[in-house]
Structure formats: C-alpha cells, structure tokens
Amino acid sequence: MPETYLPTVLDNRRLTETVHALRLQSAELARAARPGQFVHIKCGEGNLLRRPVSICRAEDGVLTVVLEVRGEGTRWLSQRRAGDMLDVLGPLGRGFDLSHKNIIVVGGGIGVPPMLFAARAAGAKAAVLGFRSRENAILAEEFRDVCEAVYITTDDGSLGEHGTVAGPLERLLREGGCSAVLACGPRPMLQAAAALAETYKVPCQVSLEERMGCGVGACLVCACKTVVDGKEKMRRVCKDGPVFPAEEVVW
Ligand SMILES: Cc1cc2nc3c(=O)[nH]c(=O)nc-3n(C[C@H](O)[C@H](O)[C@H](O)COP(=O)(O)OP(=O)(O)OC[C@H]3O[C@@H](n4cnc5c(N)ncnc54)[C@H](O)[C@@H]3O)c2cc1C
Ligand code: FES
C-alpha cells in the first residue's frame, strides 16, 4: 500500500508565468520514486481532493515536481513557500520500462517534466520537446545535460523548429538506431508519436493523463479503454498506468 509522507518544501522556483518547480525534502519518496510515476498531493485544508503531479527528479533525498497552474488545487500548490509542509501520497503508478538502449524521449507542454526523470535514468539518445511558444519552454538546459541531442519545437516558431514534435521525431526514427520511444504530453501528441513509432516498428510507451480521485485504484474515476490480447479492457490510469504500451491504448 502506498504511504503518505509529509515532506518540507525546500524551494519554489518559477519557471514561466504559470509553471513552478517545487523541491520537496523526503529521503523515502526520493528513494522509492521511479521514472513515470507520480505523487498525489493534498492541496489545501478544505474538501479539495489530492492532485496528481508527475515526478520530475528524485535524488539526494529530494523530490522535484513541476506544476502548471490550471485551477484551485495547482494554484494553492504554486503558492507554497520554503519551509511549508505538504501531504504527499506516493510514489504511485507504473512508470516507464527503461530496459532499452538508445531511447528517444518525447514531451509536450507540462508533459515534459516526467520525461526529464526518464531521460536522466535511461541516458537517453535524444529528447524531442514541444511547447506552445518560447515563453512556455521549460527545462531545456536540464535535458541538454543528460541527453546526447535535444530538439525543441514550438507551435508559433518562436523557439526551435516551427511545428510539432512529429517533425524531429520522424527524422530521428528514419535515421534508425533507436530502440524505444517514451512520451508524455497532450493526447494528440501521444497519438502522433505512437503512430510514427508504429510506422518505423519501434516500441512506444505513453504516459496518459486522466482526472483522478483516489489515485490508488479504488474509485475507478480514472478508467480508460485499452486493448489487451485483442480484447477491450478498462484499465485504471492511476494503478495500471499512467504509462501504457502505446499499442494497448484505444485513442
Ligand atoms: C498521472 C498524472 C500526472 C500529472 N502530472 C502533472 C505534472 O507533472 N504537472 C502538472 O502541472 N500537472 C500534472 N497533471 C495534471 C494535474 O493533475 C491537473 O492539472 C490538476 O489536477 C488540476 O487541478 P486543479 O485543482 O488545479 O484544477 P481543477 O480546478 O481541478 O481543473 C482545472 C482545469 O484542468 C483540467 N484538469 C484537471 N485535472 C486534469 C487532469 N488530470 N488531466 C487533464 N486535465 C485536467 C480540468 O478539466 C479543468 O479544465 C498530471 C495528471 C495526471 C493524471
Ligand atoms: S483515481 Fe481512483 S481508481 Fe484511479
């Protein structure tokens, strides 16, 4: 059974207008965390549910999460300061299978942070990161520290290549030498990455996002449709995922 921890916030760094990186001190969480897993954080004192946030980094007794303010819960989290204590359940879910060589990680928007944890752990061959525009770009330097090559795309062309992650990803797959694609981001991006990987016969794993309740497999709020051995099967994103083999996802 996953445990609840009460880590202290070490610092809260603003990465963009709406995105914050929180470093939490917790030797237990940092030791147990695996790339692709998430934590379920209680946001405030009221009736608010916990909010799922991916693990971006876990080392030296410190867990880093990166969150984008979307509503009440993430706004509350973005206002935490050094010394505040959080109520954190986790680490939760099944993460990425990193038993491949020459991995390409693909991240879009707020799906980028968990891919840094995966890229670091796998020593990724390349990272392909997509953002709406230059102002929304995050963590590019951190990826350059751990990947052989980093490709950035923006929807408006204000940074890197104009367009989506599909452009650089297809070029990398066409060049060959890659044995797995791992992706997290908006669903259309995941679907495009999965389709390209299938075309080039490279296994692909995708991290799905669904609204969550309990986070531990009990309430079924996060159910999603998958296909296993040719049969449709409802799976829980929180417990059976959030990472699934792309060929099992019903888009
Ligand atoms: C496994 C997992 C990992 C995640 N990792 C991160 C992360 O690393 N960083 C990060 O910023 N966010 C992450 N999210 C999304 C984050 O959990 C939601 O943005 C957050 O729960 C919104 O809560 P809120 O109270 O701020 O907003 P709410 O008031 O609850 O909602 C605000 C808006 O966000 C939408 N929304 C709420 N929850 C989700 C969700 N789970 N998926 C898609 N849209 C949602 C709502 O429909 C609404 O439009 C993750 C979600 C999942 C399921
Ligand atoms: S959130 Fe309750 S089963 Fe997944």
What does this structure look like?
This is Dihydroorotate dehydrogenase B (NAD(+)), electron transfer subunit. The chain has about 250 residues and is an alpha/beta fold. It has 3 domains: about 5-90, Beta Barrel (Elongation Factor Tu (Ef-tu), domain 3); about 95-205, 3-Layer(aba) Sandwich (Rossmann fold), CATH 3.40.50; about 210-250, Dihydroorotate dehydrogenase, electron transfer subunit (Dihydroorotate dehydrogenase B (pyrk subunit), domain 3). It is built from 6 helices and 17 strands. The protein has helices spanning about 25-30, 70-80, 110-120, 140-145, 165-175, 185-200, and strands spanning about 5, 10-15, 20-25, 40, 50-55, 55-60, 60-70, 90, 105-110, 125-130, 150-155, 160, 180-185, 205, 225-230, 230-235, 245. The strands form 4 sheets. A 7-stranded mixed β-sheet has the order 12-11-10-9-13-14-17, with helices on both faces. Helix 5 (about 165-175) packs parallel to helix 6 (about 185-200). The longest helix is centred in the C-terminal third of the chain and has 13 residues, at about 185-200. The structure holds flavin-adenine dinucleotide (FAD) and FE2/S2 (inorganic) cluster. FE2/S2 (inorganic) cluster binds next to loops.
